[in-house]
Amino acid sequence: MKAIPRKAGTKAAFTIIELLTVMSIIVILVGLIVPSLNMVRRYAKRVKQKAQFHTIDVSIELFYNEWDGYPPSSQFDKANLPYCGAMKLAEAMLGLDLQGFDPESLFRRDGRTGDNAPRIYEPFDSPDPSLRDLSDRRKYLPIANTNFYRLNQIYNQPRYQGRFGSATDFVGEEIVLYDEYSRAGTIEGKRVGMPILYYMADPSLGGHDVSNANNLQNIYKYKDNDDLVLLGLPWDMAAHSHPMASDKGATLHMDASGSPIPARTEIFYEKTINKNVTVPTPYRSDSYILLSAGFDGEYGTKDDIFNFGM
Question: Could you say which residues of the chain have pLDDT below 70?
């Protein structure tokens, strides 16, 4: 049988069916490859975040050896001002003026040793040269590569001012360490992550009540960082709360369909329970817990990262 001869002057070309077939194959391949690349990217970020936690762990242990105890993480300072665990961790690592931790510190957010005492850290707005004479007693920890910023560089929208009815706004010059993700926003052209939450254990207690976050016998207290968690999502002007925030009038977290999800402080206890023991006990029940909000930037979701487990 003879081949049908091509007509003179015609050019070889793909048919529309062939083009659609090739395009369909490309779309399928892209659909298979892109999720894999995203998974690799997220895994790499997780590994990087775990490495950051390791650096902080080393520094905290050096702090412990130097002063025979871990940094506190209580909700308030000795002046009864909001000064949560994340802020106290940053002070222990860097000092309030980023010149190292001062051993005379009482972990007050105003940097004083008493109500009428002078500051032991240099103020950000008007540095006092005389305070630099005290720098020889400061303690520097090997945490130079750890990320940090001031709270008011991220939580700077008007809705945060006076959020807790205090004469001194909760969001100010306080330093916090932030995680390796870039969900929180941009500061001076640099993408930054969410604050790393810090909780110190009270080994004298023995509770880990996943049904009652306010049980006074709980080794860890969710309230240590609740005021910070209540600030919500910096990029969300609707002021939705994090899933594990307490209920203080904040807008509820919303799921993918836009339906409200009640905030539950018990999430913190559900996520930190040690599943390797039968008695309800948290991981690291004799030391401390670090928490990153993970890829989605929300505390209390499935991609949270702790300084325990994988």
Answer: 1-14, 32-40, 123-136, 140-145, 157-171, 238-239, 247-256, 260-261, 310
Predicted local confidence at residue 288, as pLDDT: 98
pLDDT digits (tens, 9 = 90+) for 117-156: 888 887 655 555 555 555 567 776 666 567 888 888 888 7
Say how many domains are in the chain. 1
What is the span of the domain harbouring residue 262? 16-306
Helix axes 85-94, 16-67, angle to 10 degrees: 70
Is the residue at 5 inside a domain?
Answer: no
Answer whether residue 8 is part of any domain.
no
d(CA 305, CA 300): 10
Question: What are residue 2's phi and psi, to 5 degrees?
Answer: -80, 145
Does a structural domain hold residue 286? yes
What DSSP character marks residue 270? Answer: H
The answer to whether residue 4 is domain-embedded is: no
* 61-72 residues labelled b (16+ CB within 10 A) or e (exposed): eebeeeeeebbb
SS3 track for 12-55: CCCCHHHHHHHHHHHHHHHHHHHHHHHHHHHHHHHHHHHHHHHH
pTM: 0.82
Per-residue model confidence (pLDDT) at position 2: 56
Count how many Cα atoms sit within 13 Å of the Cα of residue 232 in the half-sphere of its side chain.
Answer: 21
C-alpha torsion angle, residues 128, 133, 134, 138 (rounded to 10): 100
Pairing of strands 190-192, 185-187: antiparallel
Tokens of 238: 């609707």
Cα 52 to Cα 73: distance, rounded to the nearest angstrom: 19
